[in-house]
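Request: How about a record?
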Amino acid sequence: MTNPTEHALPANSMVESREGDFGCTVMDLRKLMELRSTDGVDQINVHYGGVMNLCSRLKTNPVEGLSGNPADLEKRKQVFGQNLIPPKKPKTFLELVWEALQDVTLIILEIAAIISLVLSFYRPPGEENKQCGLPVSSPEDEGEAEAGWIEGAAILFSVIIVVLVTAFNDWSKEKQFRGLQNRIEKEQKFAVIRNGHIIQLPVAEIVVGDIAQIKYGDLLPADGILIQGNDLKIDESSLTGESDHVKKSLERDPMLLSGTHVMEGSGRMVVTAVGINSQTGIIFTLLGANEGEEEEKKKKAKTQDGVALEIQPLNSQEGIDNEEKEKKAAKLPKKEKSVLQGKLTRLAVQIGKAGLIMSAITVLILILYFVIDNFVIHRRPWLSECTPIYIQYFVKFFIIGITVLVVAVPEGLPLAVTISLAYSVKKMMKDNNLVRHLDACETMGNATAICSDKTGTLTMNRMTVVQAYIGDTHYHQLPSPDVLVPKVLDLIVNGISINSAYTSKIMPPEKEGGLPRQVGNKTECALLGFVTDLKQDYHAVRNEVPEEKLYKVYTFNSVRKSMSTVIEKPSGGYRMYSKGASEIILRKCNRILDKRGEVVPFKNKDRDEMVRTVIEPMASEGLRTICIAYRDFNDGEPPWDNESEILTELTCIAVVGIEDPVRPEVPEAIAKCKRAGITVRMVTGDNINTARAIATKCGIVTPGDDFLCLEGKEFNRLIRNEKGEVEQEKLDKIWPKLRVLARSSPTDKHTLVKGIIDSTVGEQRQVVAVTGDGTNDGPALKKADVGFAMGIAGTDVAKEASDIILTDDNFTSIVKAVMWGRNVYDSISKFLQFQLTVNVVAVIVAFTGACITQDSPLKAVQMLWVNLIMDTFASLALATEPPTESLLKRRPYGRNKPLISRTMMKNILGHAVYQLTVIFFLVFAGEKFFDIDSGRKAPLHSPPSQHYTIIFNTFVLMQLFNEINSRKIHGERNVFAGIFRNLIFCSVVLGTFISQIIIVEFGGKPFSCTKLTLSQWFWCLFIGIGELLWGQVISTIPTQSLKFLKEAGHGTTKEEITKDAEGLDEIDHAEMELRRGQILWFRGLNRIQTQIDVINTFQTGASFKGVLKRQTMGQHLDVKHVPSSSYVTVAPVTSPPTTSVPAAVSSPTLGNQSGESVP
């Protein structure tokens, strides 16, 4: 092995003099961490003289850790860097403005406005007007003609407003998102030893030289070298793509890398590289996650070779592998868009097409009418000097056409969706739901099934030992220590204190008179509490046998369901203490301690007797039973790696019953779920009797119901064929009745979730939410439609795979999430009902008005006011309605229920009929009714008329009152219910009304308005209030009788996805429509695209390293994997799904994904 410092580059010499205080440089450590397994061991031994020497070079104590002196920590940060990977720079406000300007509709409007502006300054002489066949303007019109530029300017001005509003929205969302990210990062802490004490330190504070405690479920925050480890296995798939867990030991492979997951065991490591010098950081630099820095580095690299090392690939094979992986990962199909996004995109496409056709027809009719009228009927020649005037007319027609289009496309929709989601996410924080993927919040509203863990979610996770069976006696209350034989007492105390993670401990209560705090694994804490109740001190035992003295540890995992620790006996030989699920450990016992503490044989019939008289009664009271046992090895060293040989012939010391009380609020929450049409299933690792008892207490199962409670083994027997493969048909017979799955492994959980999602039983495809806290829950959390991780008890791996983190680990928070999810869906439906009524009316008015009177009754600027400004505020008002309990009284909508229901369609068309009747009456008979001049057939540049001002004013006031009608979408009569709970709504309605008064009275030429009298105002107001009365009329018509009404905005059918999804990165329904060769340029017009981009910013990142992303921006690649298979599931949106759709990629492309769960 060559010594890296021999090749130190000249540019580093300056750095080295500064780093001389430590025995190694950043570069040395970086090169060391790039080595793997035995190469690493050799380098550590040859170059550094072993791990302990490396610690002394880094000036750290392997047992006590760093002193924590601020000056020392600061110096380490300067020399070795901070544990931060700089995030991508956020887009500046100007960049967002530029993006908003890219919108095709706006561009067309800008062009039209500019042409209109330019032409308005062209002034032809009066006589020519006669020749051109246009009315001669009177002298008083001259002043008005001077103001012809105002319309163009006003359109431009409103475009600027829209762009600024859009950009500001994007900017604030980006800011909110980063705030959320920072919060997630701040919450990520890690156990570090400083000054001999274990403290929880925010990941960013970790420095090189720190001694970190690592345990099952951790996500390593920095690179390090193992100092001491027990049975440590790491999942390095996030860096290498290899899904097999890598065993780590001092002799074979002590290299621990950031971004990898601890799957088993525990240990301590010395941190050797942090931030951009860690392996994760290097990959990030390679991927160009810090593009700005990259460019600067390239500039520097030209002058200074030393720094250029930053951007060279890794020296090892990994560098090349990773680049290939990156290419492959880019090709993986992404998951189906959320239910709502799919429906919205389809709806937008449909509306946009209709709008485009309408606007094209409008322009065509106007031009044809003008041409035929002038050149055919009046037989006028086309004079060259008239051309500018004709063009001016054509531009006016063009602007009217564009106006129709602008009105047809619901620009407010993306805004409403984003506001609604962002608002919900913010409020859900208060309800203990930390949403990591925005769309999860809305999917949760469609949930039909929840698979919940028992411990900590349904129960309080405050475990205490309440019964014990020791020496042939079943104690229903805890025994006092003097009843027990000293020898047995000693075995119990040692068996618990030594054979549990040293990170589990009981701390004094925070408040006087409170309960002691349990830190670490709660089951172990219950056992340690039992030791304390027996008036013994577990600290003394641990001080006598520190972690370094443990000879071998078999840590707990989901396969073993037990934990064993081996220690050397002072007299020679070894003793192994074991603990675990009682039925599993008792099967391995062939001896037991009797009343006198003597070892007596323990036969099969004794075991059956004990299960019947001790374990089942405990379990039926809802207690978790744990058996404690031991074994002595006196003749030589046994084969430790052969577990089945080691874990037999145990001697049973005791069986304890641990109580974990049900949370008092859970039964009520589960009753709410049942009312809301959501099935709750309990999936637990506990004994079936315990699980059934807890399920009954919670109300998941009620006596007399027809339901199933199965154990994992039985479940697998029922659903698998002879070859051991899961058969969907068999599963379909079981899951509808299954309520409790006990003694289940993580694979069972994943199988169940996948089976329910893929099932075709019932008319709706099930939408499944899952809770999980363990590392092995990752696959199930990823597979589920919404994965909930536990914020307190959850491991980093589980949080990484989840969509929502429950900050209080409480089941009731899930019910709150359902309520918010349904609320998002309803808010968007409310907005759609409002928006589409406006659109239908405005489009028809503009179209017929233009065709009959050659001029739209609503001018471009007025339309923009109605459409852009009012809609923006309406989306704000309707999207921030707070949820009510009534949302939980109906069944979920399901995946293919259309966005616009029959009732909504009835409301939209009903109100449109009222508004159109009023407006056409005013257009054609308004001047007679109000006794004013007619505004129809006005020449170009004529002043605004009272007639058309009344039409505009009435139109706006009708929308305003219809906004109040839109608060209810299920046909409720009382549209004012709870209106004062939503202050935003009240202020928006009031604000819009005041703005309207200002526009009409002082808007003048730009808004084509003129002042109205008081009586005219009252008439407008009266017609507006008529909307509320008309709403009552509509709600009396039963929806069932209107069979002809169509619904709109359906989900997608499975077949469509399979047919069209090949080769697409994300299944975008708009894209599919385009692929069918229709209206190719529509994509730009589709304002919804903006919303999708925004939401994508929230939920996905392009990086292939989900795991690594968490440490920077936490954007996640949403690929749902089924472990160990070359299928990628495309979450279907419809009821009749088949099994997973084979990916459009060949299976080798998924090589690196075999069996791993990529966060």
User: Anything to note?
Assistant: The two ends are 36 Å apart (CA to CA). Residues 811-853 form the longest helix (43 residues).
